[in-house]
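Title: Comparing notes on inverse folding

I've been comparing how different people in this forum approach sequence design from structure. To keep things fair, I'm posting one structure and asking everyone to reply with a full sequence. Here's the target:
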């Protein structure tokens, strides 16, 4: 069973969860969510843009795990960021998920009418249909613009984060503001370069674990939240099996030293601003 971190609003958030980005087959998505929950996962991460919220909801409802034990995250897409659009989009997400209140609602990208959407999200918290709100892909500059306008502070910033990209500017800022760092691409999106890194391979040998398990353990010990995606039941089980060993301070330092000076995924801000608000994904049933 996973450990948790405490969010600034007092809620506990599991440190390992299941991500369902690019799980476009809704039957596979539903089965993966159910398998993960039955394996002991208590955090699921979806988004409007993944077009699988309804399947996630079915996976949760058919898992047999009590809803109040599950931490469910979804995200709003920039095409829905103006205040009224965000209000309607939150209603749509609640309907598709059909699982009661959303535990964490994120702004998926920092472009468009961020403040209008944030105010709609704050009202959703006031109304009890959303329990926590946060952001994704926000830089220090983006947060500096949002925070003075926010009545309710973001609890999480979900960003690309793994041993090869450790967000050198953002992480100290998040720590100072009490915002939890949540990792996407936590295991490098399947990158062979990351799992073949000698310090990761040698820690894996020393502890009788896989390289992926060592990377996830590194996230846990850095106090991040990580949401590895898998549709493979053996991988789903292995990715949660990281709580029976501990990386030594030396192993942690050697993995920390793998940080590079650029992320794996990059999209220029002008392109994000021009394209993302116009592209409205169509939800799958
Ligand atoms: N907010 C954002 O903008 C954003 C962007 C990207 C991702 N995310 C979130 O972060 C989640 C994770 O990111 P991601 O899916 O892109 O990358 P990831 O979790 O780092 O990597 C997923 C890849 O690793 C493989 N894998 C999983 N467990 C494994 C294991 N134990 N051994 C070997 N291979 C394994 C998966 O294949 P199998 O399925 O075959 O196991 C898949 O190919 C997403 O699902 C999504 O929820 C958010």
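Reply #1:
Here's my take.
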């Amino acid at each position: 069973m996973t450990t948790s971190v405490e969010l600034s609003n007092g809620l506990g958030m599991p440190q390992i969860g299941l991500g369902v980005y690019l799980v476009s087959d809704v039957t596979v998505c539903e089965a993966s969510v159910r398998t993960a929950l039955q394996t002991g996962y208590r955090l699921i991460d979806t988004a409007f843009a993944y077009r699988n919220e309804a399947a996630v909801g079915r996976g949760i409802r058919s898992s047999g795990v009590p809803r109040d034990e599950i931490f469910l995250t979804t995200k709003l897409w920039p095409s829905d960021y103006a205040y009224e659009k965000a209000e309607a989009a939150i209603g749509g997400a609640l309907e598709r998920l059909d699982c009661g209140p959303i535990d964490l609602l994120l702004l998926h990208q920092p472009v468009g009418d961020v403040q209008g959407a944030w105010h709609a999200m704050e009202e959703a918290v006031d109304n009890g249909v959303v329990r926590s709100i946060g952001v994704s892909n926000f830089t220090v500059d983006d947060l500096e613009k949002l925070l003075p306008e926010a009545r309710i502070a973001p609890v999480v910033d979900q960003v690309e984060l793994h041993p090869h990209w450790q967000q050198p500017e953002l992480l100290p800022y998040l720590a100072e503001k009490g915002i939890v760092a949540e990792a996407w691409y936590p295991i490098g999106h399947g990158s062979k370069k990351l799992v073949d890194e000698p310090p990761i391979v040698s820690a894996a040998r020393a502890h009788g674990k896989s390289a992926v398990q060592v990377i996830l353990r590194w996230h846990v010990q850095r106090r991040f939240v990580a949401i590895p995606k898998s549709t493979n039941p053996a991988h789903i089980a292995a990715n949660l099996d990281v709580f029976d060993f501990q990386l030594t301070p030396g192993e942690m330092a050697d993995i920390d030293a793998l940080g590079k000076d650029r992320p794996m995924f990059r999209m220029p801000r002008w392109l994000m601003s021009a394209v993302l608000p116009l592209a409205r994904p169509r939800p799958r049933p």
